[in-house]
Every structure is written in structure tokens, then in C-alpha cells.
Write a structure and sequence with these properties.
The protein contains 14 helices and 13 strands.
């Protein structure tokens, strides 16, 4: 069976890109089709045979993919998949727009229905770039997204949260296969709780991640917080941060593992479709303080591997941190819970599903 992978764009690194690398381990010969590819900003992709669209001939667009939003579905439609039996699109946007023939099977491994048209629509309304698009054109693109959502033969959702969105917005049923974390995050060499002296955030620094709330909380509580990651909000967050807040910028995985292992808890203040960070933290024996909505509800066991707070407010998160410090959470429980999301289980669940589909 000849397999091809399709992804929205290859010019950054985050949770979705880790998922792609797991797919590569299962299908090492599968090429990766995408809108644009920047080898400098996406060195992780060198293991793939990356095939970008014709837009990649314009180098200045490789990291300005948002400019291509009106045309990206057309770019994916231009690819020829005639020599493949199975095409898997991994997408939160337009990769599902590919065109296949009746003798081929297209599975959409859906990260979420296109966020700025559906579940995240209200957040994007205030975005300066988004406001430049006339309302009638936004409605047209939204209708187009709904139309191309009919193209996959099947949907697999990354979480129950995303499964419910696929049904709500695209009116399609789906299965759920949880993505895995990289096995390198699993460790049984736990740092004793009493030797941990800071809290941790691992995130892209963009508005919907709500890192600003966490910084305000730790300023107020005068407790140490380490922020790992980079993004458009970096300058703003640095100005907001007090003396107890430290920014590391992006770091490699071995350093990240050490940050996880030495943290009292990971702070997860956003709504995520799924979220690999809480699982990575638990694999290192570290509990999570998370906003009680979205994918975190599926990966954290309340009061056993972490706790939840009810509102994305300073008071709600601050109260959660104070509650957490009165609990005693066993690192071994965190580790055991994370094993549900290892690479072996993902591979087995996916291949079993494909076998059932073929028969």
C-alpha cells in the first residue's frame, strides 16, 4: 500500500509537527505534501521527502503563509496523488482540500476544524489582520471550508473534544485516536517534590495560550515561574513579568525534559484541542494545573495527576495554585497515566483502525 501524508505548512515546530514525526515512524517512505516549506525554520522535516506547492517558488511566502489563506485550498487541489492508495491529511486548515479518485482512500486526521472559522471565531474577530478581510469574503471562505470538509472519506479526531467539533461544524462522524508523545519523555528518575522550586509553562507565546494570566498570577503570588517558548507575545509578556518570572526562549528536548522533571507543576491556562504538553509533563512525573475545558480533561486525572481551575482569570488560577500546594500528588501516578499516550499505543490503534477499514 502506497501512502502519502499531507500537512498545512512546514515552517515551524510544535505539537502538530511532533504528530507528523510519529506518522513518519509508521510510514517512513510516505512523502509529505504541503503548502509551503522552509527548511531553515523546520529542520525537523529533513527526515521527509517534502513536496511543497507551487507557491514555494516565492521564498518570501514560506513564512507568510497567512497571506496565502485565500488560495491555499486551490494549492492543495493542484497536487497529483494518483500513485497512492492511502492519503492521510493531518490538518487544522486546508490540507483536507486535496482531490482523490474513487479507488483511493483519504483519511483526515483532524487537529480541529479550521479554528478561525468555527471554534475560535470570536477570538479572531479582534485580530487586526483578520479585520482587514471583508465580512462577505470571510463568509465565503467559511462556506468553502464547509464544502471541502466533505472531501475526506473518513475523519479521525485527535480527541473527544475535536470529535464533537467535527460533528457540530462539519456534520461528520469520526473516530478518536489520541496522538502520542515522543518516548524520550518517559522517565522513572523522578526529582523529589520537595526539591522542586518553580512552576513551568511550555507554550507558543500567542494570545489564545493565555500566558499573560499565568504571569500576572505568579507576579501576585511572588512565586517562581519558568516560561519556555517563543512567539508574537514575547515582548509584551516580558514587560508584564516581574522578578520571579524567567523566559528561556525555545530549548531542545533534553533541556525541556529537565525543565519538566524539576518543576512543581506545569501551568496549562488555555483551551486546547488536545495538548501534548500535559502528557509530556506527566511522563516526567510532573502534575499539571490546567483550565478545565478542552483536551486537558481527557489527559489529566483530577486530584491524582493534576487539578483544574474553572475560569481563565487571575483569581481562579491563583486559587488553583494555592489548592495544589496543599495536595500530595505521586509522580508515579502521573507517569502511569501518561503511558496511555505512548507511541506503541498510537501505532497499534492506528494500524488496527486501518486494518478494520480495509476489511
Amino acid at each position: 500500500m502506497k501512502v502519502a501524508l499531507v500537512y498545512d505548512r512546514v515552517n515551524k515546530f510544535g505539537g502538530a509537527e511532533r504528530v507528523l514525526l510519529t506518522f513518519h515512524k509508521i510510514f517512513p517512505k510516505a512523502p509529505l505534501y504541503t503548502l509551503v516549506y522552509d527548511a531553515k525554520s523546520a529542520p525537523w522535516a529533513k527526515v521527509f521527502n517534502v513536496i511543497p506547492s507551487f507557491f514555494n517558488k516565492l521564498p518570501f511566502l514560506r513564512n507568510k503563509h497567512e497571506w496565502l489563506a485565500p488560495f491555499s485550498a486551490m494549492a492543495f487541489e493542484s497536487f497529483d496523488f494518483s500513485k497512492f492508495d492511502l492519503i492521510i491529511s493531518v490538518t487544522s486548515s486546508d490540507a483536507k482540500a486535496i482531490i482523490t479518485k474513487p479507488n483511493q482512500y483519504h483519511i483526515c486526521y483532524c487537529l480541529t476544524p479550521t479554528r478561525y472559522f468555527w471554534s475560535g471565531k470570536n477570538e479572531y474577530i479582534n485580530d487586526k489582520k483578520f479585520k482587514l478581510i471583508p465580512l462577505w469574503l470571510r463568509n465565503y471562505f467559511r462556506t468553502t471550508d464547509l464544502l471541502i470538509s466533505k472531501r475526506p472519506d473518513e475523519y479521525i479526531a485527535i480527541s473527544k473534544e475535536v470529535k464533537s467539533r467535527i460533528l457540530k461544524y462539519y456534520h461528520r462522524e469520526s473516530s478518536v485516536i489520541y496522538p502520542s508523545i515522543d518516548d524520550k519523555f518517559y522517565t522513572k528518575k523522578y526529582i523529589p517534590t520537595e526539591n522542586r522550586n518553580y512552576y513551568l509553562i511550555v507554550s507558543r507565546l500567542v494570545p489564545y495560550k493565555k500566558v499573560d494570566i499565568a504571569i500576572k498570577v505568579f507576579n501576585k503570588l511572588n512565586k517562581s515561574l519558568v516560561v519556555v517558548g517563543t512567539g508574537s507575545e514575547m515582548k509584551k509578556l516580558r514587560k508584564l513579568a516581574g522578578k520571579t518570572i524567567k523566559f528561556t526562549g525555545p530549548i531542545n528536548d533534553m533541556d525541556l525534559i529537565n525543565q519538566y522533571k524539576n518543576a512543581k507543576a506545569v501551568i496549562f491556562p488555555q483551551i486546547e484541542d488536545y495538548g501534548l504538553v500535559p502528557i509530556e509533563a506527566q511522563a516526567c512525573g510532573t502534575p499539571v494545573i490546567a483550565y478545565g475545558k478542552g483536551g486537558a480533561l481527557e489527559t489529566i486525572i483530577k486530584n491524582k495527576t493534576g487539578i483544574f481551575f474553572e475560569d481563565q482569570t487571575i483569581n481562579s488560577l491563583a486559587d488553583a495554585v494555592i489548592r495544589f500546594e496543599k495536595l500530595s500528588i505521586n509522580p508515579e501516578d502521573c507517569y502511569k497515566n501518561s503511558l496511555r499516550f505512548n507511541e506503541t499505543n498510537f501505532r497499534k490503534n492506528l494500524l488496527d483502525h486501518l486494518t478494520d477499514t480495509a476489511t
